[in-house]
Amino acid sequence: MPEQHVDEFRTSTARWLYGSLAGWGLTALLLAGPVGAVVLGSAWPLALSATALLAIGYRWLRARSALYQVTDQRLIVCNGLLMKTVDEIELYRIKDMRLDFSILGQMAGIGTITLTSTDRTTGDTQFVLADVPHARERREGLRGLVERARQRRGVREIDVDHEGLAQTG
Fold it and tell me: Where are the strands (E) in 27-163, listed by range?
């Protein structure tokens, strides 16, 4: 059966600005520069705005350099602007998913999805998808795809407890 494209997304800089304390702080600095320049009658507060603008630009470039693609069989992560790196995780190898939201992130509709996998791409670490727009819906969609991929391949998970007893799940 051919692989089917399901979803494609990038992190959202605008939602990050609205949904994080760092984003709010950079926005405040961006606005404080011109106000400070008028109040103080000096151009040096504009350096605050320039610094904030550079930080936002850096964040935007990072968001543009990462592309997440979801198929019915794999999660594909493409990173980089000039030099590209492509990581793939077979969905049937994903063991666990966690979704984290800050209070501001909930308002902005962004969250962090953390995957634990048996895939060699992740090694012994967790795979983190940060600042994902519509994170709750994407996590649920991914969860369903993982279950279908496991059923298609006949994968069953066996957990071994601390006494060495196997339990199937």
Answer: 66-71, 74-79, 85-90, 94-100, 110-117, 127-133, 158-160
pLDDT level of residue 12 (50, 70, 90 thresholds): confident
């990581």: which residue's tokens?
A: 87
Q: What are phi and psi of 141, to 5 degrees?
A: -65, -45
Mean pLDDT for the stretch of residues 107-134: 85
Q: What residue has token string 């967790």?
A: 126
For the domain with range 5-152, which CATH number is right: 2.30.42.10, 3.40.50.300, 3.30.565.10, 2.30.29.30?
2.30.29.30
Token digits for 133?
Answer: 């727009």
Any idea which residue has 């069953």 for tokens? 156
Contact 12, 133 (CB under 8 A): yes
The string of pLDDT tens digits covering residues 19-34 is 999 999 999 999 999 9
Phi, psi torsion values for 69, nearest 5 degrees: -120, 135
Per residue in 64-78, pLDDT (tens digit) is 999 999 999 999 999
